């Protein structure tokens, strides 16, 4: 559980060229799912490269609380002795998912079709986030949720005693919602169907297939994704090699693009089309990124990136790309501040319900650093400072949000004056080695004393 009790202020300063290799940790989305599917398989799943960030560690504890045996064997190496689909047992205590929307929403899906009761809570950020988007479809299976107003945590889910399969069209583009429905469908008889208008990350579908479930993805005549899962499969344990996280890689990549003279190597970055929108966008802005040695790792298409400092121009980011780069908009808005011209990010209202309201958090921090921004409910526009450079020289509020913290620290590495974030402790949720990795590349970033 991440307490975020004592804030850790951190400051970054204009840095010399970033050089070397940025081997970022394992993918957060895949790490959560590896533990969960391992817990639902019969026998021993072995995981390597697991992200040992707080979000994922909270999911590991939750799987243990539901009856699986989850053991850390070494750095990033874990084994899970699963209980099989239908084998979870009622947890004795409240499940605390810390800062993790993915953790809580996926696990709600896991327990929704069990004849027992599970209570959930989280940190000050997670307790503000909407859960009805998950509890509404879970009610169709027969589960009942009682939470705070607006369906917020703490929340208790009474699982369905006799679950029925469900057909559900997701009202928001969300892999968490899609996954929660599919996870619930695992312990329901018959076929559960999820329809999504916009494709979201597909790790659940890929991994479920890998664990032996029958999952079929089709395109409807309207161009939507229709995913059909056959319930009550026996999942077979797997060896899961977690690939590196493209959302974490975004931070050293973007830092190298804006810190003059930089050239870095970032191995094994996902090229999964449902995850790589940032990289497409950066190339359109003029980024010098070479995609080398394309291959498969852990069932995902990956490539090694060679990234050089680049003069960038602002662009319009197509709204239909949003789902494939949803967690990368904060750091993209930093890169946009250094570009020549305006970057328009439309179709991004989901950013308002992440760990913080990320449109608001970025807009306020960028303004404090001397960058002109515009926003509306669904849009963020950044007017790049170009050749004039970004002033910096501000303390930015991170609102218990790791991506906001890392984004402003990246900004400070190339700004004229140092940038402080009021609390860098949330970085440990997804990228616990951020400070060391960036320092090793040559960035000037450290905790304040
Ligand atoms: O399914 C997942 O692993 C995730 C889905 C996304 O959230 P939404 O489903 O809310 O878009 C993303 O922002 C999050 O970091 C991870
Ligand atoms: C939105 C994020 O995560 P989650 O929803 O799991 O808290 C994120 O990591 O940027």
UniProtKB/TrEMBL annotation:
<feature type="binding site">
    <location>
        <position position="174"/>
    </location>
    <ligand>
        <name>3-phosphoshikimate</name>
    </ligand>
</feature>
<keyword id="KW-0057">Aromatic amino acid biosynthesis</keyword>
<feature type="binding site">
    <location>
        <position position="358"/>
    </location>
    <ligand>
        <name>phosphoenolpyruvate</name>
    </ligand>
</feature>
<feature type="binding site">
    <location>
        <position position="403"/>
    </location>
    <ligand>
        <name>phosphoenolpyruvate</name>
    </ligand>
</feature>
<feature type="binding site">
    <location>
        <position position="129"/>
    </location>
    <ligand>
        <name>phosphoenolpyruvate</name>
    </ligand>
</feature>
<dbReference type="InterPro" id="IPR036968">
    <property type="entry name" value="Enolpyruvate_Tfrase_sf"/>
</dbReference>
<feature type="binding site">
    <location>
        <position position="176"/>
    </location>
    <ligand>
        <name>3-phosphoshikimate</name>
    </ligand>
</feature>
<feature type="binding site">
    <location>
        <position position="28"/>
    </location>
    <ligand>
        <name>phosphoenolpyruvate</name>
    </ligand>
</feature>
<feature type="binding site">
    <location>
        <position position="101"/>
    </location>
    <ligand>
        <name>phosphoenolpyruvate</name>
    </ligand>
</feature>
<feature type="region of interest" description="Disordered">
    <location>
        <begin position="1"/>
        <end position="25"/>
    </location>
</feature>
<keyword id="KW-0808">Transferase</keyword>
<dbReference type="InterPro" id="IPR006264">
    <property type="entry name" value="EPSP_synthase"/>
</dbReference>
<keyword id="KW-0028">Amino-acid biosynthesis</keyword>
<dbReference type="GO" id="GO:0009423">
    <property type="term" value="P:chorismate biosynthetic process"/>
</dbReference>
<dbReference type="GO" id="GO:0009073">
    <property type="term" value="P:aromatic amino acid family biosynthetic process"/>
</dbReference>
<dbReference type="InterPro" id="IPR001986">
    <property type="entry name" value="Enolpyruvate_Tfrase_dom"/>
</dbReference>
<dbReference type="GO" id="GO:0003866">
    <property type="term" value="F:3-phosphoshikimate 1-carboxyvinyltransferase activity"/>
</dbReference>
<keyword id="KW-0963">Cytoplasm</keyword>
<protein>
    <recommendedName>
        <fullName>3-phosphoshikimate 1-carboxyvinyltransferase</fullName>
        <ecNumber>2.5.1.19</ecNumber>
    </recommendedName>
</protein>
<dbReference type="Pfam" id="PF00275">
    <property type="entry name" value="EPSP_synthase"/>
</dbReference>
<dbReference type="GO" id="GO:0008652">
    <property type="term" value="P:amino acid biosynthetic process"/>
</dbReference>
<comment type="pathway">
    <text>Metabolic intermediate biosynthesis; chorismate biosynthesis; chorismate from D-erythrose 4-phosphate and phosphoenolpyruvate: step 6/7.</text>
</comment>
<dbReference type="GO" id="GO:0005737">
    <property type="term" value="C:cytoplasm"/>
</dbReference>
<feature type="binding site">
    <location>
        <position position="33"/>
    </location>
    <ligand>
        <name>3-phosphoshikimate</name>
    </ligand>
</feature>
<comment type="subunit">
    <text>Monomer.</text>
</comment>
<feature type="domain" description="Enolpyruvate transferase">
    <location>
        <begin position="14"/>
        <end position="436"/>
    </location>
</feature>
<feature type="active site" description="Proton acceptor">
    <location>
        <position position="327"/>
    </location>
</feature>
<feature type="binding site">
    <location>
        <position position="29"/>
    </location>
    <ligand>
        <name>3-phosphoshikimate</name>
    </ligand>
</feature>
<comment type="similarity">
    <text>Belongs to the EPSP synthase family.</text>
</comment>
<feature type="binding site">
    <location>
        <position position="327"/>
    </location>
    <ligand>
        <name>3-phosphoshikimate</name>
    </ligand>
</feature>
<dbReference type="InterPro" id="IPR023193">
    <property type="entry name" value="EPSP_synthase_CS"/>
</dbReference>
<feature type="binding site">
    <location>
        <position position="28"/>
    </location>
    <ligand>
        <name>3-phosphoshikimate</name>
    </ligand>
</feature>
<feature type="binding site">
    <location>
        <position position="354"/>
    </location>
    <ligand>
        <name>3-phosphoshikimate</name>
    </ligand>
</feature>
<comment type="function">
    <text>Catalyzes the transfer of the enolpyruvyl moiety of phosphoenolpyruvate (PEP) to the 5-hydroxyl of shikimate-3-phosphate (S3P) to produce enolpyruvyl shikimate-3-phosphate and inorganic phosphate.</text>
</comment>
<feature type="binding site">
    <location>
        <position position="176"/>
    </location>
    <ligand>
        <name>phosphoenolpyruvate</name>
    </ligand>
</feature>
<dbReference type="InterPro" id="IPR013792">
    <property type="entry name" value="RNA3'P_cycl/enolpyr_Trfase_a/b"/>
</dbReference>
């Amino acid at each position: 559980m991440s307490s975020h009790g004592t804030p850790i202020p951190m400051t970054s300063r204009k840095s010399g060229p970033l050089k070397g290799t940025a081997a970022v940790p394992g993918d957060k989305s895949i790490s959560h799912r590896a533990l969960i599917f391992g817990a639902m398989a019969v026998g021993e799943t072995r995981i390597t490269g697991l992200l040992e960030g707080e979000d994922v560690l909270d999911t590991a504890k939750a799987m243990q609380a539901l009856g699986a045996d989850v053991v850390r064997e070494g750095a990033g190496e874990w084994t899970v002795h699963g209980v099989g689909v239908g084998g979870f047992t009622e947890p004795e205590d409240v499940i605390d998912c810390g800062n993790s929307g993915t953790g809580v929403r996926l696990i709600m899906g896991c327990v929704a079709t069990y004849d027992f009761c599970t209570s959930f809570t989280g940190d000050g950020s997670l307790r503000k986030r909407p859960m009805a988007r998950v509890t509404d479809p879970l009610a169709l299976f027969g589960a009942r949720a009682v939470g705070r107003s607006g369906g917020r945590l703490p929340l208790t889910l009474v699982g369905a005693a006799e679950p029925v399969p469900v057909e559900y069209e997701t009202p928001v583009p969300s892999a968490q919602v899609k996954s929660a429905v599919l996870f619930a469908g695992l312990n329901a008889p018959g076929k559960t169907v999820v329809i999504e208008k916009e494709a979201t990350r597909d790790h659940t579908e890929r991994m479920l297939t890998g664990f032996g479930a029958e999952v079929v993805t089709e395109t409807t005549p309207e161009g939507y994704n229709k995913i059909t899962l056959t319930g009550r499969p026996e999942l077979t344990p797997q060896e899961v090699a977690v690939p590196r996280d493209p959302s974490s890689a975004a931070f050293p990549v973007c830092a190298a693009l804006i810190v003059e003279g930089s050239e870095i190597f970032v191995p094994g970055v996902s090229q999964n089309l449902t995850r790589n929108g940032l990289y497409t966008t950066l190339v359109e802005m003029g980024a010098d990124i070479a995609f080398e040695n394309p291959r498969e790792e852990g069932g995902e298409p990956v490539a090694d990136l060679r990234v050089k400092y680049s003069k960038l121009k602002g662009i319009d980011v197509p709204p239909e790309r949003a789902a494939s780069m949803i967690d990368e908009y904060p750091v993209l808005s930093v890169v946009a501040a250094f570009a020549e011209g305006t970057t328009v990010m439309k179709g991004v209202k989901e950013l308002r319900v992440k760990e913080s309201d990320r449109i608001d958090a970025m807009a306020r921090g960028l303004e404090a650093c001397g960058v002109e921004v515009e926003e509306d409910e669904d849009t963020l526009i950044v007017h790049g400072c170009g050749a004039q450079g970004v002033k910096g020289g501000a303390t930015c509020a991170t609102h218990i949000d790791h991506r906001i913290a890392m984004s402003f620290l990246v900004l400070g590495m190339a700004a004229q004056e140092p940038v402080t974030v009021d609390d860098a402790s949330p970085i440990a949720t997804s990228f616990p080695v951020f400070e060391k990795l960036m320092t090793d590349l040559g960035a000037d970033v450290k905790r304040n004393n």
